[in-house]
Each structure stands twice: as structure tokens, then as C-alpha cells.
Amino acid sequence: MKLFKSVLFLTFMLFIMATFSQCGVSKKLETNAPLTLGDVYYQHWVAGVQGGGSGINIFIPIISNPNKVILDSVYFQGKQAKLEYRNNDVFIGRFQSEINQKRDIVMSSDPYAEYGNKVPEMPKKSSFKLLEDECVVSYKLGNKVKYFKIEKINKKDVSEFMSTPHKKP
To answer: Which of 34, 51, 130, 163 could form a disulfide bond with 102, CB atoms 3.0-4.6 angstroms apart?
Structure first.
């Protein structure tokens, strides 16, 4: 019985130590960006039609990329978004906001009438604590994922569109 208690205690302690050892592993920020950036800015946008959407786009222009890194995601204002590559060496991160989104929800006392309602998507939360004008960019260098921080991001005036600004084909 004493042996069983000892084994159980050791197993429990190993489990606790393994759990807390993960707390020390955090995403390490690189001190310098591995490429040369232009004027990074963000801009709020609102569609000009009801239900057309709204959000924030962050623009990260690349001046030179000697290490051939691939930018992957951006963490900005408590949210995370995938970066998409645009012409002229610009990466864009798109964040939707709750304002002016299309709402197709059926509310009824009959539960079968609500069957087609979609479950709302939860935005990906950022794991970084950042100021309003800071972001963290994840990138791939070889097969490793690394991170660097951009500070003092400029805010441009709101853009109004006739519909949601989509990717160009």
C-alpha cells in the first residue's frame, strides 16, 4: 500500500511539473526584423451598404527581403489574422469587426425553424500584450516560426467602400 501511494504521489508530481514547465515556454520575439519594412499603417474600413461589413486592415510594406522570409500572421489589437501577399511587396492583415455585419439569423418559437442558423465564429485571440499602435508578426525562416514586433504603427483615415473589400483574383 505504501508503494502504491509513493507511485501515485510521484506520478501526480510529474504531472504538475510537466504542466507548469509549459508556462516558461513563450513565443520569443526577435530583437530585429529579418527584413526592411516601409511605413506600416492600419486603416479602419466600413462598407457603404447595410450588412456589408467593417473592420481594420493593417498594411506591412516590404522594402527588401534578403533572407527570403515568409510572413505568416499578424497579432494586432488583441486579435490574430493571416497575412496575405499583395503586389508591390505589401502584406495585408484583415480583421473584421462586429459593426455592420450581415445577420441571417432565424428566431422562432419553433426550434426546427432555427436549424439553419450558423454558429458565430470566435475571432482568434492574440497571445501577446501589445499597445494600440503595436503588432507582432510571425514569419517562417526555413522550417522555424519566429516573431518580431513593430512599434508606432500609423493610423490612416477611415475608408468607406460600396461593399466588403475582397481579395483580387
So the answer is: 51
In a domain, 1, yes or no: no
The domain of 90 spans 28-161
What pTM does this model have?
0.65
pLDDT digits (tens, 9 = 90+) for 2-48: 777 777 777 777 666 666 554 433 568 887 888 899 999 999 887 76
Nearest to 71 by CA among 115, 34, 124, 107: 34
Q: How far apart are CA 158 and CA 156, in angstroms?
A: 7
Confirm whether 58 is domain-assigned: yes
**DSSP E strand boundaries for the chain:** 29-30, 36-37, 41-47, 54-64, 70-76, 79-86, 90-96, 135-141, 144-150, 154-161
Total structural domains in the chain?
1
Q: Is residue 23 part of a domain?
A: no
Domain contains 46: yes
- Please report where in the chains the cell 450558423 appears, as a residue: 118
pLDDT in tens, 123-167: 566 677 888 889 999 998 878 889 999 999 999 887 665 555 554
